[in-house]
Design a protein that fits this description.
Radius of gyration: 27 Å
CATH superfamily of the largest domain: NAD(P)-binding Rossmann-like Domain
Strand order of the largest sheet: 8-7-6-9-10-11-12
Oligomer: single chain
CATH class of the largest domain: Alpha Beta
Number of strands: 18
Number of helices: 13
Distance between the termini: 10 Å
CATH topology of the largest domain: Rossmann fold
Number of domains: 4
Length: about 425
Amino acid sequence: MTKVNCLNPIAACGLDLFSDNYEIVDSMDNADAVLVRSAAMHDLDLPDSLAAIARAGAGVNNIPLDKCAEKGIVVFNTPGANANGVKEIVVAGLLLASRDLMGGYNWVKENAADPDIAKKVEKQKKQYAGNEIQGKKLGVIGLGAIGAKVANIAFRLGMEVYGYDPYVSVDAAWSLSRHIKHITNVEDIYKECDYITIHVPALPSTKGMLNKEAFAMMKDGVRILNFARDTLVNDADMIEALASGKVAKYVTDFPNPAVAGVDNVITLPHLGASTEESEDNCAVMAVKQIADFMENGNIKNSVNYPACDAGVRETAARVAICHKNIPDMLTRFTGVFSSKSVNIANMVSKSKGDWAYTILDVDAAIDDASKTELEAVEGVVKVRVILSRQLVISTEVQYRVCPGSMIDYYCKAVTFVTAFSCIFHIDGI
């Protein structure tokens, strides 16, 4: 039984995808996998049993990635699952930055009891006049799942869109409208655009990238949107730019004591992906990734280990090894099996930075001694052995195998006319 602990509420449409071979537990102490949204994990003790953490969302700054890698814990996220929700709120942010909707709303609310409010509106509204976004230049920094959607919809709203991303993926490139101007130097975004929205991950290289030097290159009165991560913007430099008029409006989804309440700052309480649809999509994606990893050892959308896919397991056993990315590891792994005359039917090995991941399909069951020998190889941090299991289907029953799991197939109704039971050997559960 695979034990899964949820550190935050996870949408039922996701959890329902787990088969009967999974158990949702209240404690992480003996959990095999963890599902998390915003809960801080940096100070938590991670048990040795833990093999995987899935973040139901894109950002993983609440998870100690290096610590997890060192313990052989694969950390997943769900890029793109909340992209539409964030895209829509960015459009709202563009309008909030252009039209003083908040100022107008607050005036009406403050004067709601005035019997002459309808007459006063006509004199007051000129204070909240703004600009249209049509025909303006928008710079999109980061063209991942969210940035690409933002760029496309902004073009359809009549904006001239510039996109910058030196690491744009093939999928993102294909999804971009041909009308998006691809910029190779981010400074051109700063110099040319009336609006700038940022959609890059929080990394040491991106921390404070919107700072005094960047603001100095921008047009006077530029409007900036940050629905990615608060650390991307240097708050002190932003406040100075707002005071000077260099930045006309700053819309951010990350309120903090530095910017909350500052004039011309519109702060939202991290609502970017807070839609029912986004939460459902993230939950489904996170559960499917966990199930595929636990059942088949496959890795998709990990942030600390490489993507690695060996398909659905078809051999007697599959061995999944988290290890350091150092020379001669594969030779050592295969040596363990060759010394015991165990045939390796298939092998996939991938690396990512300092870490690597290897899947070996073998034609015989793996004993404890072999597993211990693999764990003793210098540089290995975790070894998982995924074995076949037997499923007994009794007479006159209807049984569904792994509902909604990555196996994604079902046994049909089976009716037996004899008193015998049938034993089905099913791989991957």
